[in-house]
Specification:
About 45% of the residues lie in helices and about 15% in strands. By secondary structure, it is α/β, with parallel strands linked by helices. The strands form three sheets. A seven-stranded parallel sheet has the order 3-4-2-5-6-1-7. A six-stranded parallel sheet has the order 8-14-13-10-12-11, sandwiched between helices. Strands 9-15 form a two-stranded parallel ribbon. Helix 2 packs across helix 3 and helix 18 runs antiparallel to helix 20. The chain is globular.
Length: about 500
């Protein structure tokens, strides 16, 4: 018998009860298996909702429920809520190698990477799963698990139904999206605090866009660690947020440490937190932040999900982002409503509001789900793409396959204009780029098989270069880019065949 007194069950609000009914009705009326995506703003209580769905599903369908998360904190929160409503469950963490008796439990919570490792060894690691619930479903790491549960229905839950990888849209995996209450609606009903937003115009020249589509950490550290940006941050805090519990989001560790030193120098109660901290140090830091009035916590990435501290009064975006999901996640950390807190403050030091609009603004999530490319293009203009230099960041370990230094020394945009200045056709820059890729591959590859492996790994980099070229000539249609890619790869393959043998 579970001692549910150990955990406090969160009661469902009326709109949450309606959501549970709506989701279960979808599974009742659609042919199994059915993949459903559910959207609800941060702070709307997704964990409470899908825990109630899991309980009802177990009772009605009699099959197991598997809940996937990407952070251990989210796994623990979910486990506690399930226990509180009387659902026995088991967390699959790195210590769980086997499940001795599957009859003992019908609900499992697993971290993605851990479960993937277990399933690679044993595809029947968890049997008779009828429903897979995916928390933070916009992350693409969950897809590797789906192949093992092709006969199970899937419920994805997210605040922003936009894939973290724009080449893998959510509409390709989920049959339907249903949306919950809007941010404005939750504010009006008193479930979320309202945001007072303060915009400070900042000079972001020097930021570079990486191959993931967002600004690179290295260029963000350079821009946000300089004296003038630090001074603007301190000025904004003292003008708007002085004496409030404040959470500062930064892009890089170097920036966050500079922020910590700046506020410490001015005698403010401040601590720094990033992903390199041990579990104990992280818990100690968050405990200090919770218990300390007027505390300032400067952080990097780690608090965007799985963190719930309702006493936060001010959110400072000390970074720029091109991710609407990240924008909502950061601001959402201050939106929890508690007695005496109906508002919180947002200080934007990254021109993010100009990019995405205000946090409370209406968003047509159905449009985002069905036409993600068009949706994103309408928010991030080509003009902004041209404002920032596009920089490619190679994954770790790529230097084993090709010479990265040779590739980083070549800039197709610069080469294009050098050709024009010399009275040569700009299109020669493509040939020069291909020769550069050819040289980088030959520096490492000794056989044709190895050469083609390098080419495969370089596809994103080739596309990145050709996109920069199309921007130079103002001809960036998808069809033209595809034509350039096909021609480029065909000619590069021919050069490799002439030089390398197997």
């Amino acid at each position: 018998m579970i001692d549910t007194d150990l955990y406090e069950a969160k009661r469902l609000y009326p709109f949450q009860e309606e959501t549970v009914k709506q989701v279960l009705d979808e599974f009742r009326t659609n042919e199994h298996p059915f993949n459903l995506l559910y959207q609800l703003p941060t702070g709307g209580g997704k964990t409470v909702i899908f825990s109630a769905i899991a309980k009802q599903y177990l009772q009605e369908w009699g099959k197991r429920v598997l809940i996937l998360t990407h952070r251990i904190e989210l796994s623990v929160q979910t486990s506690h809520q399930l226990l509180a409503i009387g659902v026995k469950n088991k967390i699959i963490n790195s210590e769980v190698k086997t499940i001795e008796d599957q009859l003992d439990c019908d609900c499992y919570i697993a971290m993605v990477e851990t479960l993937n490792n277990r399933l690679q060894d044993n595809q029947d690691f968890i049997e008779n799963v009828g429903l897979v619930i995916v928390d933070e479903a916009h992350y693409n790491s969950f897809r590797k698990i789906f192949q093992y549960y092709g006969n199970s229905s899937i419920l994805g839950v997210t605040a922003t139904p936009l894939s973290s990888n724009k080449t893998l849209p959510l509409k390709d995996h989920y049959h339907k999206l249903i949306t919950g209450e809007s941010i404005a609606g939750l504010i009006k009903m008193g479930y979320l605090a309202d945001a007072e937003t303060y915009n400070y115009d900042v000079n972001l020249h020097g930021l570079k866009i990486g191959n993931n589509g967002d600004f690179t950490i290295s260029s963000s550290d350079v821009v946000y660690s300089n004296f003038f940006m630090q001074e603007k941050l301190l000025f904004a805090y003292e003008e708007v947020a002085l004496g409030t519990k404040t959470l500062i989001f930064n892009a890089g560790i170097e920036t966050s440490i500079h922020v910590f030193e700046l506020f410490k120098k001015h005698k403010y109660k401040v601590k720094h937190l990033d992903s390199t901290f041990s579990d104990k140090d992280r818990k100690d830091t968050l405990k200090w932040f919770k218990e300390t009035p007027d505390a300032i916590l400067t952080s990097v990435g780690i608090l965007t999900t799985g963190f719930d501290e309702p006493s936060v009064q001010t959110i400072i975006l000390n970074r720029a982002t091109r991710s609407l999901t990240l924008y909502h996640q950061m601001i959402g950390r201050g939106s929890r409503s508690i007695p005496g807190k109906t508002n919180f403050q947002v200080i934007d030091l990254g021109n993010n509001v100009r990019r995405f609009g205000y946090w409370q603004d209406h968003i047509n999530w159905q449009d985002a789900f069905r036409f993600p490319d068009r949706f994103l293009e309408s928010r991030i203009s080509e003009l902004e793409d041209m404002e920032f230099e596009i920089e490619f960041e190679f994954s770790k370990g790529m230097e084993k396959y090709f010479d990265v230094d040779i590739l980083t020394a070549f800039n197709i945009k610069e080469n294009y204009y050098e050709c024009l200045d010399a009275g040569i056709k700009g299109k020669l820059a493509i040939e020069n780029s291909m020769n550069n890729h050819f040289e980088a591959i030959l520096n490492k590859a000794t056989t044709l098989t190895e050469g083609f492996k390098c080419m495969e790994l370089l596809q994103e980099h080739i596309e990145h270069r050709l996109k920069n070229y199309t921007r130079c000539i103002s001809k960036s249609t998808d069809n033209y880019l595809k034509y350039l890619m096909d021609t480029y790869n065909r000619q590069l393959s021919q050069k490799l065949r002439m030089q390398l043998d197997d």
